[in-house]
User: Fold these one by one.
Assistant:
Number 1:
Amino acid sequence: MYMVLPVVILTGLVFLYPQFAPDKLFGLDGLLPIAMLHYIGAAVILLFMVSHIYLGTVGPKVSSLFKMMLTGWYEH
């Protein structure tokens, strides 16, 4: 996760300022590989968030694992 977020930020900045994008990258137009990397990074972040929200709800009570994440203590 710590490596994906900077990639998404950097590729987003390249989209914001396309004049800094390379003309060709891996034999493709310069923005196409950057777009694919940006999309894949966003999908990874979204899956990370959805899986953590799901895992937070599978405890004995719906909110008990969220409480454990915040406090560091597990209720038996």
Number 2:
Amino acid sequence: MENKINLSFLSKSANEGFARAAVSAFVAQLDPTLEELADIKTAVSEAVTNAIVHGYGHGNGIVTISCALSLDKTVCLTISDAGRGIENIEQALEPMYTSAADDERSGMGFTVMETFMDSLVVQSEMDKGTTVIMTKQIGSDSTLS
């Protein structure tokens, strides 16, 4: 590990933009392309929004982000909440699945994260919360064209 930050903030929708900006500013030291930075910001938005909407149901809670940068220019993001948890992770990872259909959600959050990042791992336990771990190699050919 070369550098690392930890952020914790209230599960308010207004803080989603803060999370994007903070991670983006931290990752900038690796000199990513605009496309790589946009991919990371989009994935962070999706993960934080999931924590707020699905983890806490727009209620009060804490969302935590850990971002680690390694010497090989890999970004490792861990976004976690201590909310409701996911009953069926496999089902939740399916495109178009949403547990908040009445909230006009598209069910594409995990699909977007998978698309824009090199790896995605989702860990969850009912009534204890969810952790999303994503990695992206900066400067590789893994970005979308």
